[in-house]
């Protein structure tokens, strides 16, 4: 993997771990954290999602909030892992995972597929909820963390 690909590949892993919300716990390099913070600000700005809704999702409370789903879709679009109509590209999502996480990530991603909601944003909300619930050993570790994406 080239140096240029590394932030994108790590970002893919972070997205899969619930919409990039556990980055401080993963002790990312400062350069990568800056990239993630920029994407967060961009997607918050584009969608108008509240920090509170993102924080609730980190803890497993996926309120039916269209803005939260659109935030998740925005992040995944930045990764090239979702179509305009909110369908997850499973192969692309798995491919952006670091090699050491691909086996576990593949199981979760393929088991969940794309959960279909009323619109593309709801698809991402429901799919992220499935990922969260399908990896309790990962999500339980981060439920009580208060780091900012």
Automatic annotation (TrEMBL):
Keywords from the UniProt entry: Glycoprotein, Secreted, Signal
Gene Ontology CC annotations of this record: extracellular region
Top-rank taxon, per record: Eukaryota
Any one GO MF annotation of this record: odorant binding
Cellular localisation: Secreted
Record GO biological process: sensory perception of smell
Chief location category: secreted
Transmembrane segments: none
SUPFAM superfamilies in the record: Insect pheromone/odorant-binding proteins
Signal peptide: 1-27
Known role: May be a carrier protein for lipids.
Family, as annotated: Belongs to the PBP/GOBP family.
UniProt protein name: Uncharacterized protein
């Amino acid at each position: 993997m080239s140096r240029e690909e590394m932030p994108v590949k790590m970002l893919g892993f972070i997205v899969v771990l619930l919409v990039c919300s556990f980055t401080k716990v993963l002790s990312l390099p400062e350069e990568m954290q800056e990239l993630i913070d920029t994407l967060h600000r961009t997607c918050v700005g584009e969608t108008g999602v509240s920090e509170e809704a993102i924080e609730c999702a980190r803890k497993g409370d996926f309120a039916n909030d269209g803005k939260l789903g659109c935030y998740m879709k925005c992040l995944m679009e930045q990764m090239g892992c979702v179509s305009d109509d909110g369908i997850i590209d499973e192969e692309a999502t798995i491919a952006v995972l670091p090699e050491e996480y691909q086996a576990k990530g593949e199981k979760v991603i393929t088991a969940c597929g794309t959960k279909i909601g009323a619109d593309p944003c709801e698809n991402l909300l429901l799919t992220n909820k499935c990922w969260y619930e399908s990896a309790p050993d990962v999500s339980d570790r981060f439920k009580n963390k208060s780091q900012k994406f």
